[in-house]
């Protein structure tokens, strides 16, 4: 495939090399790091950020941004938990929860395309509004104790599939599907085209607005899925869940080498980016670094990665 | 007279690729010296070697009798050599005076407080000296491209420039602005300032320049005085062969009416525009820039809303509200600005060529690579697109080849109606000819073609009929037999 030739040059290996170095250092510093148990735990944690970041990759490729992902996660989780607390069947509640995420994404997309509002502003507004709705719906209190006997819902966050935790399986399945979508379908090609030059794409007869709405809907749906995994793991829906998750997702996308100006990037990079953030969190915890310093180090790593990327461009 | 700039036997290679091979270039004070050559001939490299962006591998550069080795364009500027780029560098939120003195503002002592009165007074004196119709306190963002360019020239002069290098200075100017620029250039000449003039527009070169130097494939071909040479000789020097007739003739039987536009109106932009184009016909559209030509075409293509009017294709009324619907009706439009509106620069030649057609080529949304590849290679061949690989990013191609990609992407969908807006802007002579031949081939296949162009010789050379737009209205539709430039120009400026 032509894409492959262009994308697999040395430059693209940067994030992967970074991840490998990080793993080597951590495995020397901590003997717990390279254990199976630790990695399953790590990947389970990564899955939530990765799912959101996959959607964010599409949004950023079109030249947009979605700040509302954390609030979408919280509201859709609360909806699912609330329904189940009222005795709705788990499968149906999950479906409705996912769908609510889709609807919120579509709303973002419509505001951005039809209302001609800059994505940053539009999703900043919906981020606030969706969070508010979550607080209204939950009355500011966590929803708990609703799914103790629903196997389907329990599985999402805590189950295993042939020995692999379900969140990791979900992450990999979504990754493979989106990888194919981005590389092999017109949807993927048009995502790149719109981010590369929106006006030229419109004049080439592409349905720019519709595609953008789909992309925000995808991100909304994946945020909801991440929310359901989180809710299932904690067995409770927190009204403040997902706060600042947009930042980790954007960081994963950028660490993976996708350009914030749109049109350039790849989803493999995002997976690696999410892993870098996850490994860093995990390793710093293992090394008993205080959570205050952890933030400083995470910030520094993101900056370093972006600076190295700049140097390659020049 | 001692030359201002004297470049001798300049050598420059990138890796094993030689881009300049023994080039001589000499600029005298007060002359306008055209630097010509096809895209890729080495013009920009030569300028970059002169101003220190590239280091030369061999040869000498003497400025004002002193051999120089600039390492940065700033050093060249200190010697009075200033480049005015095609993309202008003015800051839209600042005034004319602030732009002229950007970074060199007169201050009160060392306080950093700007002496605005003094700055505006000095700016006004430069503007007067150059005969520029500008006020120092105007905001530059509201000014036309032509005026913004004047600001850059004034800025250069205020730094005591001795030689201005202008890269395609007229590409985005209206006819009137070009005349204003030429009068400024004449003023500069009188003051002993030299101009290196890079352009593809032959008419302009022969109007304004004193000498012409031609490069071809990195070789220096020669320097001619303007009165000793002619159009054909220069073209031959540039392409190294005779390209024959500048505008190839076509023999096409013109068929039935394809497109009819009736009373198309967008208040304040264009009004009551009616015309028709037939199969196999080329309708040239002339008019000054800003006359509404482009806007009318964009409205027909669905890229811009209009208030009233009807569009008929093959006699049936159609409603086109987006480019997508226009494409579905068999209309293609090659836009004026290929970088902003025509191409996805970061994407490959392959991806650009198949963009409008990508959905038809896919099965259930999945791209069929083999199908695409066949189409792509057939178009690369048919249009003679020079690219090392179909996977090369389109931004790496020369202007002419980029324009061929734009053509190719629309030809791939077999349009019935083709709108061309400035199809040869920034394209060199050889590629121009190929584009003209392509237009003729399409006309022969029965495509109805509308060609908007600012280059009158092109309009007259290529069209069956010429529609002239003046201030948003159709001023005249003229049969093109023995039509001359004066008649069209008169209509374009509002006369009869």
SSE order and pairing:
The complex is a heterodimer of chains A (314) and B (496).
Chain A lengths: L1 H6 L6 H16 L6 H26 L7 H17 L4 H24 L5 H20 L4 E2 L6 H8 L1 E2 L2 E2 H19 L1 H11 L1 H6 L4 H27 L1 E2 L7 H11 L11 H20 L4 H23 L1
Antiparallel strand pairs in A: 1-4, 2-3
Helix pairs in contact in A: 2-13, 3-8, 3-11, 3-12, 3-13, 4-5, 4-6, 4-11, 5-6, 5-11, 7-11, 8-9, 9-11, 12-13
Chain B lengths: L4 E10 L2 E11 L4 E5 L6 H8 L7 E6 L2 E2 L5 H6 L2 E4 L11 H5 L15 H14 L15 H14 L4 E5 L7 H16 L3 E5 L3 H7 L2 E6 L2 E7 L5 H9 L17 E10 L3 E9 L3 E6 L5 H8 L7 E6 L2 E3 L4 H6 L2 E4 L3 H5 L6 H6 L3 H4 L7 H14 L16 H13 L5 E5 L7 H16 L3 E5 L3 H7 L2 E6 L2 E7 L5 H8 L4
Kindly summarize this structure in a few lines.
The complex is a heterodimer of chains A (314) and B (496). With 314 residues, chain A is mostly helical.
**Shape designation of chain B:** globular
Rg over CA atoms of chain B: 24 Å
Total number of helical segments of chain A? 14
Cα-to-Cα separation, first versus last residue of chain A: 27 Å
Q: Which consecutive residue ranges of chain B, at least 5 long each, have pLDDT under 50?
A: none
Average pLDDT across residues of chain B?
A: 90
At CATH level 3, the topology of chain A is: ABC transporter involved in vitamin B12 uptake, BtuC
User: Strand order, biggest sheet of chain A?
Assistant: 1-4
Secondary-structure class of chain B: alpha/beta
SSE order of chain A in H/E notation? HHHHHHEHEEHHHHEHHH
Describe the structure.
The complex is a heterodimer of chains A (314) and B (496). Chain A starts with a helix and ends with a helix. Chain A is 75% helix and 3% strand. Chain A has one domain: ABC transporter involved in vitamin B12 uptake, BtuC, CATH 1.10.3470. The longest helix of chain A has 27 residues, at 208-234. In chain A, helix 3 packs antiparallel against helix 11 (208-234), helix 4 (69-85) runs antiparallel to helix 5 (90-113) and helix 8 crosses helix 9 (186-196). In chain A, the strands form two sheets. A two-stranded antiparallel sheet of chain A has the order 1-4. Chain A is built from 14 helices and four strands. With 314 residues, chain A is mainly alpha-helical. The longest helix of chain B is centred in the middle third of the chain and has 16 residues, at 175-190. The model of chain B has no long low-confidence stretch (mean pLDDT 90). The A-B interface holds A 1-2, 5-6, 184-187, 189-190, 192-193, 196-197, 199-207, 263-264 and B 301, 303, 322-324, 326-328, 333, 335, 340-348, 350-351, 355-356, 358-359, 362, 365-367, 369, 390-391, 409. Chain A: Its main location: membrane. Chain A: Pfam families: BPD_transp_2 (PF02653). Chain A: This is Ribose ABC transporter (Permease).
């Amino acid at each position: 495939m032509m894409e492959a030739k262009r994308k697999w040059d040395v430059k693209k290996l940067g994030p992967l090399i970074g991840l490998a170095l990080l793993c080597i250092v951590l495995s020397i510093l901590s003997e717990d790091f390279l254990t199976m148990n630790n990695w399953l735990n790590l990947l389970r944690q990564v899955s939530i950020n990765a799912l959101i970041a996959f959607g964010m990759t599409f949004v950023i490729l079109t030249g947009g941004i979605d700040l509302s992902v954390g609030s979408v996660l919280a509201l859709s989780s609360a909806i699912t938990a609330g329904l189940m607390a009222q005795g709705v069947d788990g499968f149906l509640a999950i479906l409705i929860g996912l769908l609510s995420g889709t609807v919120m994404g579509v709303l973002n997309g419509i505001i951005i395309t039809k209302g001609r509002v800059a994505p940053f502003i539009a999703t900043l507004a919906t981020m606030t509004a969706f969070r508010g709705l979550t607080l209204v719906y939950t009355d500011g209190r966590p929803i708990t104790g609703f799914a103790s006997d629903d196997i389907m819902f329990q599985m999402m966050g805590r189950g295993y599939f042939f020995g692999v935790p379900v969140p990791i399986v979900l992450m990999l399945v979504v990754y493979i599907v989106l990888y194919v979508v981005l590389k092999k379908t017109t949807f993927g090609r048009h995502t790149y085209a719109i981010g590369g030059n929106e006006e030229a794409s419109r004049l080439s007869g592409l349905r720019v607005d519709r595609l953008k709405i789909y992309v925000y809907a995808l991100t909304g749906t994946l945020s909801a899925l991440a929310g359901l995994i989180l809710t299932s793991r904690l067995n409770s829906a927190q009204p403040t869940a997902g706060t600042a998750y947009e930042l980790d997702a954007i960081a994963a996308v950028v660490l993976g080498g996708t350009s914030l100006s749109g049109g350039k990037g790849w989803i493999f990079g995002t997976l690696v980016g999410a892993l870098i953030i996850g490994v860093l969190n995990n390793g710093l915890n293992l090394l008993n670094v205080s959570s205050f310093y952890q933030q400083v180090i995470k910030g520094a790593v993101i900056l370093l990665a972006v600076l190295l990327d700049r140097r390659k461009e020049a | 007279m001692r030359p201002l700039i004297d470049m001798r036997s300049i050598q420059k290679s990138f890796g094993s690729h030689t881009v300049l091979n023994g080039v001589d270039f000499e600029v005298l004070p007060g002359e306008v010296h055209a630097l010509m050559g096809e895209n890729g001939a080495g013009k920009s490299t030569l300028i970059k070697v002169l101003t220190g962006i590239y280091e030369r591998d061999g040869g000498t550069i003497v400025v004002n009798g002193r051999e120089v080795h600039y390492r940065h364009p700033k050093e060249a500027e200190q010697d009075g050599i200033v480049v005015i780029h095609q993309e202008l560098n003015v800051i839209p939120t600042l005034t004319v005076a602030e732009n002229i003195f950007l970074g060199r503002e007169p201050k009160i002592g060392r306080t950093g407080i700007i002496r605005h009165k003094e700055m505006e007074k000095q700016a006004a004196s430069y503007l007067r000296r150059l005969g520029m119709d500008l006020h120092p306190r105007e905001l530059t963002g509201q000014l036309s491209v032509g005026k913004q360019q004047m600001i850059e020239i004034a800025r250069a002069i205020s730094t005591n420039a001795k030689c201005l290098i202008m890269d395609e200075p007229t590409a985005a100017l209206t006819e009137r602005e070009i005349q204003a620029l030429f009068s400024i250039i004449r003023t500069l000449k009188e003051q002993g300032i030299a101009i290196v003039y890079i352009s593809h527009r032959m008419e302009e070169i022969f109007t304004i320049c004193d000498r012409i130097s031609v490069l071809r494939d990195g070789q220096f071909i020669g320097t001619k005085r303007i009165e000793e040479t002619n159009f054909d000789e220069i073209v031959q020097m540039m392409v190294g062969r005779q390209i024959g007739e500048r505008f190839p003739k076509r023999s096409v039987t013109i068929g039935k009416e394809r497109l009819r536009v009736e009373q198309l109106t967008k208040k304040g932009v264009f009004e009551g525009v009616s015309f028709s184009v037939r199969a196999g016909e080329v309708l040239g559209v002339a008019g000054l820039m800003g006359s509404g030509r482009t806007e009318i075409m964009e409205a027909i293509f669905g890229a811009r809303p209009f208030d009233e009017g009807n569009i008929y294709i093959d006699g049936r009324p159609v409603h086109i509200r987006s480019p997508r619907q226009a494409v579905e009706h068999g209309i293609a439009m090659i836009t004026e600005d290929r970088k902003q509106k025509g191409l996805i620069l970061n994407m490959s030649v392959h991806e650009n060529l198949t963009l409008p057609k990508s959905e038809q080529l896919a099965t259930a949304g999945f791209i069929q690579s083999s199908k695409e590849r066949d189409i792509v290679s057939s178009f690369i061949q048919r249009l003679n697109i020079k690219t090392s690989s179909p996977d090369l990013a389109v931004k790496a191609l020369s202007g002419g080849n980029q324009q061929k990609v734009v053509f190719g992407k629309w030809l791939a969908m077999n349009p019935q109606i083709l709108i061309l807006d400035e199809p040869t802007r920034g394209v060199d002579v050889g590629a121009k000819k190929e584009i003209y031949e392509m237009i003729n081939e399409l006309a022969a296949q029965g495509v109805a073609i509308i060609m908007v162009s600012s280059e009158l010789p092109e309009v007259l050379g290529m069209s069956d009929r010429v529609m002239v737009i003046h201030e948003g209205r159709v001023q005249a539709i003229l049969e093109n037999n023995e039509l001359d430039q004066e008649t069209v120009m008169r209509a374009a400026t509002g006369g009869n």
